[in-house]
Amino acid sequence: MKVTVLSGGTGTPKLIQGLKNILHEEDISVIVNTGEDTWVGDLYISPDVDTVLYTFSDLINEETWYGIKNDTFHCHEQLKKLEYDEFLRIGDRDRALKMHKTHLIKNGYKLSEIIEMERKLLGIKAKIYPMTDDHVETKILALDKSEDKQKSQSDFCSSPIEQNLQFCSSPILLKFHDFWIKRRGNVNVLDVIYENSNYAGVVEAALNDIENSDFVLIGPSNPITSIGPILSIKDIKKALMDKTVFVVSPIVGESAISGPAGMLMNAKGYDVDVVGVYEFYKDIVDTMIIDNIDKNKKDRIGCEVITTNTIMKGLNDKVNLAKDIIKCFDEI
Length: 332
Ligand code: GDP
Description:
By secondary structure, this protein is of the alpha/beta class.
């Protein structure tokens, strides 16, 4: 059985650990979000891609879902002493992979070519692709909370038009890391955009793998900042229309298990629950996998639904969830 997985950098990698226990690794392909790729100083950082590489090579730090387990931070600490502003804490061994990417990018290689080298060098049999080789960047349109305060003060004296004008002049466009790491999400989000996605092309090999897969699995990743950017690549979305697509909800109850998914879904006008997740994916989803605690919402979801435990704490949870998905596909 061949499966193509769409992934961000926390929820879906957990499920990938389950999948790789029950499928042949070479039958798994993963298309990864690169909307959060950025430069930190002179280093090119592709956070979700590196997490997927480390997940398959059993190096991942499962406490943070970022970087390598038991890594050291000598270089980062030394840089700090030299007053070098490295806002991400990059481990020494993790830095090696980032230096490898940076060197090759500066020498004109495509990201997909670099990842292909790295997965082979790390002994990974699964295929791993970036969502595009082009530059697509997720940006958060937000209102600074201090400006928002000024706005509410001015509510007393301005007409509605003046208030709107003031509102329109205030928003700031943040890179994802500025929003989530530097400002810790402490802004009022107005919108999320995938800059340049209209012009971005797909990696042909990824498209072929979608076509040759038995089904596509959208793991429990943030719909807005992890899967939304992948779906913003037109050829990927189009290819999914003709496939059997399973979606695992990253929302359990009324909130995300981790990260800003709830706040961002709200900003995009979706309810923060499994029904909101369904609404987000309704053009492409065939079967949704939701948590047992959400089974009372099943009737409000307009596709097939499986209810099971979707909270992956240990390897058993991950393998069981992967088995439930494969079993459901077999039954279809
Ligand atoms: P990011 O790239 O680090 O933002 O990570 P992802 O987008 O891949 O994953 C973040 C999403 O995964 C969040 O919305 C979480 O709610 C969801 N998530 C994390 N762990 C679990 C889990 O064990 N079960 C489910 N259902 N969702 C999870």
